[in-house]
Write a structure and sequence with these properties.
CATH superfamily of the largest domain: Acetylglutamate kinase-like
Order of helices and strands: EHHEHHEHHEHEEHHEHEHEHEEEHHE
Number of helices: 14
Strand order of the largest sheet: 3-4-2-1-5-7-8-6
Strand content: 15-25%
Number of strands: 13
Distance between the termini: 28 Å
CATH class of the largest domain: Alpha Beta
Largest sheet: 8 strands, mixed
Radius of gyration: 23 Å
Oligomer: single chain
CATH topology of the largest domain: Carbamate kinase
Shape: globular
Helix content: 25-40%
Number of domains: 2
CATH architecture of the largest domain: 3-Layer(aba) Sandwich
């Protein structure tokens, strides 16, 4: 099973025209549905709301003083989601809309909330369809392009692979639209990107998208630091999503600097040198040694302060560090529920982030 983030740009959704191509979208939805049927988890990052808004309004000329992009996105996003919902329904797939801004992923608490929401959707085999919240985004909080957003989402959900669909075959040594001798770069990395590689990436000339090869290379650089394998491929190619997922050598493949597990371990292990800690009883120590999660009933004392999402130590009853993990609750919240059963968390706090104070997926034994 793979967890795959697929980014579809405006030029792919429109097939190079001025409006959404339902035929192209139907084919892409078919491929994603087949991929999910094979056991993979799919997260879709889709552009196209502004183009859909223009289409709804009949491509009218808008006054300059109107914040056009925000207005068009507000009009077009419901239409874009309605099309996706209808197409995925053909294959009996359920979809969910998720709109994000940079603040959602830069603030630790909101980052965790977004991750938990996406994890819950994937567990229910729902396909999240993510876009930037253009209706409220300003220059200070916008991602700038959905390539960058897709890379951050890949990090957010700890994806195995990021597929960037574009209107080119992949990354070339120079712009193939102006240079006839430009050559396709098949593989990049895991070594550092060279200056020549950065120079080979150019901007978008389609007139519809906001990306271009430079933004895709930047997205791949961000993704590979999180252990994500990235592919830049032509969205118009036959069965392109299925072929990439089946590891066919197509387009440009950009290898990660490190693997997913090592990337996560480095972050978690930073907590072993902090003074933030939970002391647990012998029963809880045995449970996590066998791969279990840390529940509030097994916690004896809390040493803080720490926030939800911080990396903290886990000490046994002899004050020996036996693990580090990501706290699912703050020190104040843990202090209120320690010793209680997981089913009592919501009654005590008035809300719940889950049964575990530290989930076993976010716990490393020392």
């Amino acid at each position: 099973m793979q967890r795959i983030v697929i980014k579809i740009g405006t030029s792919t959704l429109t097939d190079g025209l001025a409006k959404l191509s339902l035929a192209r979208m139907a084919d892409l939805v078919r491929q994603m549905s087949l991929l999910q049927n094979s056991g993979s988890e799919i997260v879709l990052v889709s552009s196209g709301a502004i183009t859909a808004g223009r289409e709804v309004l009949g491509f009218v000329e808008l006054p300059k003083h109107i914040p056009k992009k925000q207005m068009l996105a507000a009009i077009g996003q419901p239409r874009l989601m309605a099309i996706y919902e209808q197409l995925f329904r053909i294959y009996e797939k359920t979809v969910a809309q998720v709109l994000l801004t940079r603040v959602d992923l830069s603030d630790r608490r909101r980052f965790l909330n977004a991750r938990n929401t996406l994890e819950a959707l994937l567990r229910q085999q729902v396909i999240p369809i993510i876009n930037e919240n253009d209706t409220v985004a300003t220059e200070e909080i916008r991602f700038g392009d959905n390539d960058n957003l897709s890379a951050q989402v890949a990090n957010l959900v700890e994806a195995d692979r990021l597929i960037l669909l574009t209107d080119q075959e992949g990354l070339f040594t120079s712009d193939p639209r102006t240079d006839k001798v430009a050559k396709l770069i098949r593989e990049v990395g895991p070594e550092e990107f060279s200056e020549e590689l950065w120079k080979s990436a150019g901007g978008s000339k389609s007139g519809f998208g906001t990306g271009g090869m430079l933004t895709k290379l930047r997205a791949a650089e961000l993704a590979r630091q999180s252990g994500v394998l990235t592919s830049i491929v032509n969205g118009k190619a036959e069965a392109i999503i299925l072929r990439v997922a089946n590891h066919e050598n197509i387009g440009t493949t950009i290898y990660p600097i490190t693997n997913k597990l090592e990337s996560k371990k480095r972050y978690l292990l930073a907590g072993q040198y902090s003074t933030l800690a939970l002391t647990i009883d012998d029963g809880a120590a045995r449970a996590i040694a066998k791969g279990g999660s840390l529940l509030p009933a097994g916690i004896l004392t809390v040493t803080g302060p720490f926030d939800r999402g911080d990396s903290i130590k886990v000490l046994d009853n002899n004050n020996k560090a036996i693990a580090v993990g990501l706290a699912n609750y703050s020190n104040d919240e843990v202090s209120r529920v320690l010793g209680f059963k997981s089913m009592e968390i919501e009654a005590i706090l008035g809300y719940s982030y889950g049964d575990e104070v530290i989930h076993h997926n976010n716990l490393i034994l020392l």
